[in-house]
Amino acid sequence: MPEIKFYSGKTIPMEMHKVKIVQKLNLLPAKERLQKMKEAGFNTFMLHNGDIFMDMLTDSGVNAMSDNMQSAMLRADDAYAGSETFYRMRDKLEEIFGIAHLLPAHQGRACEHIIAQHFVKPGSCVIMNYHFTTSKAHVTRLGGHVEELVKDEGLVTKSTLPFKGNIDLDKLKACIEKEGAENVAYLRLEAGTNLIGGQPISYENMKAATELAKQYGIMTLLDASLLQDNLYFIKTREDSMKDKSIREITRMVADLFDMIYFSGRKFGFGRGGGILVRDEALFHEMEDYITMFEGFLTYGGMSVKEMEAMIIGFDETMDFDVISQAPQFIKHCVDELDAAGIPMVTPGGGLGAHIDAREVVKHIPAEQYPAGSLVAALYLCGGIRGMERGTLSEERNADGSEHIASVEMVRLAFPRRVFTLSQTEYVIDRVKWLYDHRELIGGLRFVHEPKTLRFFTGKLEPVSDWPEKLIEAYIAEFGEDQ
Ligand SMILES: Cc1ncc(COP(=O)(O)O)c(C=O)c1O
Question: Under CATH, which number does the domain 30-59+322-478 receive?
């Protein structure tokens, strides 16, 4: 998307699409939102979508489809085995990534399950720039452990560095030496690093890290779920790459890796997933997991309609206008909030705008989940659903103590091509109001705590009557019906 200049001299993000199908939104009155939040156990995952005004939980499976994606669904070839849709998908991915072998799977974590199942043994180490919740859980479930070697500066929330997702090459070498190359199951680099604010990794860093892994005979794996944002940042922030097309950059990135997997709920704007395997023998070794856990080899648990939509979505991902939309909206939101003095993760990355909850609600102890509390408060004050990305999303240490997350954030995701600028302005406004009333927000404690991935289905309660007090202040400002 070109930066369109206005007569006023301002530059604001511009939608390079028009709305053709709409879904009505509900803005429940403030007191009803309080009731809904109680029913959801102060966990935004447990809210019903109909009770939400701005659903900024995630970009997963909720990106807008284009007219071309929807019309492609009509030509889906329904067949248990040998669907022509599968071959079209495989060929499109080969055209883009240059890898011929595709293992289809129903979503990103299914790919992670299969990869971990094949490579991780008790005692194995998996090296990552940074973990993603499900990518780590699959490794630890099998007795492996994860080493996260993102550069220290990646965890500094306020920064101007362009590639905060970069892995530390010195730490990578030291880690391989310490663990022993034979115990390193694989090196996983995550594009658009989800849990540290959608921060990108540079091409140069990916190249150096994969070269090092190859010197030690370690398999290299790219998590391409958020590659579209990362491609945008490589083109706009990495000097040596600015004259390359998105297709050229994608191919250069792909050439570095032995395997690539993606969540099609993000990459491809549909619902599905897949693993691309360069080595044919390895591909055949891994096929059995697909038939056992996912489905036959030509659909892997996906609907063929979604597969057809994604084939178009992959091509749209190669369109600079399309992949510019989310990062530019995110930048607008981050810059406005940052200018108002609100602690944001800077520079704005992909995926969403991230608020540094540890700084906003300094008075809430880490064990009472500052980001979990802030995200619950934001639903109360505006019907905006974000996602906690902090201690609540971690699993407890073996001794039962809290594993305090290195970053404690509220994520406001920008699903692609979904929200307008006035909706974005509304979110900015409500975050500002909440920031000015942050002392009213209190902590949370678990009343039902699942052992694995507790953030999805856990139930919590406030440690005091702070939600009631917050709603009272909100109503005093905006009235009962907002
Ligand atoms: C970087 C990354 N990897 C993997 C996944 C898992 O994908 P899925 O939600 O399709 O299982 C996600 C999902 O958010 C992700 O952001």
Answer: 3.90.1150.10
